[in-house]
Design a protein that fits this description.
One of its GO terms (cellular component) is cytosol. Its EC number is 2.7.1.6. This is Galactokinase. Pathway: Carbohydrate metabolism; galactose metabolism. There is one protein chain. The protein is α+β, with helices and mostly antiparallel strands and 381 residues long. The chain folds into two domains: 3-189, Ribosomal Protein S5, domain 2; 195-366, 2-Layer Sandwich (Alpha-Beta Plaits), CATH 3.30.70.890. The chain has helices at residues 3-14, 88-99, 123-139, 145-160, 167-174, 213-231, 241-247, 255-277, 281-299, 304-314, 342-357; strands at 20-29, 41-42, 44-57, 62-67, 71-76, 107-113, 180-184, 190-193, 199-205, 319-324, 332-338, 362-366, 373-376. The strands form three sheets. Strands 5-4-6-3-1-13 form a six-stranded mixed beta sheet, sandwiched between helices. The longest helix has 23 residues, at 255-277. Bound molecules: alpha-D-galactopyranose (GLA). Alpha-D-galactopyranose binds at residues 33-34, 36-37, 122, 164-165, 167-168, 326-327.
Length: 381
């Protein structure tokens, strides 16, 4: 990310130096998809791509935010009103913080993100957490990452209206450099889990983007809730594979397949963290590939492009396993690859994908980044 360009744009727009720069990363999920809102387990890494925001405090209650990609937005903290567009995320964050009792100062800033939107890499969580950092800095309240993640999720659920789980906000807030994070989405307990020695996590962007996934996402969530109600438990997290197997025949489709994905995905995610604990790349890769089949056939959230990319990756001798990642329907897949062959792997997979689709993919390594932070210039109180 070109921080100098953001600072220059700030100076041009506001005629002064910014007082501080904050950042919050996107994420790639290794395994554990659509398990978070079922109180289950996820295993994401924070990306080395993030939303950066250069800002200074205002003495009034206004927020003036200029996105280098999406344009300018202004709102008043004492009269928040719902509207349309990207500013609903910062507005929703302000609303959630105020609902939780925080007294907020206004600010003006310039932001830019290299997390592509609609790609399944949590560009919205990156924007939410960067905005949250901005409010924390200018308003002088302490940064409690898990609480901030919860409030960002509330903004997304109650202000923006997307019924997402906690994974994206939590990893954007709590990411650890060089590590994946096993998150228990019920207790919010986290555990650092480094990827196996000699392997690399490769993000494989199909460059297709989801547009109407919001409705499909909320529908999947409803189907999972129906299935949990059928089993008489608060969430599908509480259903074991054995309990599912004993009664699955009584469940109507598609709830049966949806539940089978979530119940098996939870088991796979716990097994994946164990495999990582013993440095077992083969087992981890196998679980990732099984996860892809489950998302494709049972949860039905893959796409032809995602299937092609995953297939091309899995066909490489240096690939342990691959799957689509994120909410689904378009965007990115992720592969676990022998580190020594990442260059060759990426070239071959890109060539196959290009040949089959006519689209130019983007492949890059993710090593795990730190969560939301102040990059420089903490304000004086
Ligand atoms: C989106 C949501 C997350 C999670 C994933 C699927 O990224 O924001 O909460 O549900 O989809 O695992």
């Amino acid at each position: 990310m070109d921080l100098a360009a953001i600072v220059t744009a700030f100076k041009e727009r506001f005629g002064a130096e910014p007082e501080t720069v904050v950042q919050a990363p996107g994420r790639v999920n290794l395994i554990g998809e659509h398990t978070d809102y079922n109180d289950g387990f996820v295993l994401p890494l924070a990306l080395e791509r993030a939303t950066y925001l250069a800002l200074r405090r205002r003495t009034d209650e206004r927020v003036v935010a200029v996105s280098l990609e999406k344009g300018e937005a202004t709102f008043d903290l004492s009269a928040l009103q719902k509207g349309e567009g990207w500013a609903e995320y910062p507005k929703g964050v302000a609303w959630a913080l105020q609902q939780d009792g925080f007294k907020l100062s206004g600010w003006e800033g310039v932001l830019s993100s290299d997390v592509p939107s609609g790609a399944g890499l949590s560009s919205s969580a990156a924007l939410e957490l960067a905005t949250m950092q901005a409010f924390a800095v200018v308003s002088g309240f302490p940064w409690d990452p898990k609480r901030m993640a919860r409030l960002a999720q509330r903004a997304e659920n109650e202000w923006v209206g997307a019924m997402t789980g906690i994974m994206d906000q939590l990893i954007s807030a709590c990411g650890e450099e060089g590590s994946a994070l096993l998150i228990d989405c019920r207790s919010l307990e986290t555990k650092n889990v480094p990827v196996p020695e000699g392997t690399a996590v490769v993000v494989m962007d199909t460059t297709t983007r989801h547009r109407h996934a919001g409705g499909e996402y909320n529908e999947r969530r409803r189907q999972c809730e129906e299935a949990a109600a059928f089993f008489g438990v608060p969430a599908l997290r509480d259903v074991s594979m054995a309990a599912f197997g004993a009664r699955e025949g009584e469940l109507a489709e598609p709830a049966r397949r949806r539940a089978r994905h979530v119940v098996s995905e939870n088991a796979r995610t716990e097994a994946a963290a164990e495999a990582m604990g013993r440095d077992d790349a083969e087992a981890l890769g196998q679980l990732m590939s099984e996860s892809h089949m489950s998302m494709r056939d049972d949860f039905e959230i893959s796409s032809p492009e995602l299937d092609l990319m995953v297939g091309a990756a899995q066909a490489q001798a240096s690939c342990y396993g691959a799957r689509m990642t994120g909410g689904g329907f378009a965007g990115c897949a992720v592969a676990l690859v022998q580190e020594a062959d990442v260059g060759g792997f990426s070239e071959r997979v890109a060539a196959q994908y290009r040949e089959a689709t006519g689209l130019e993919p983007a492949l890059y390594i993710c090593r795990g980044a730190a969560g939301a932070s102040v990059v420089w210039g903490q304000l004086q109180k």
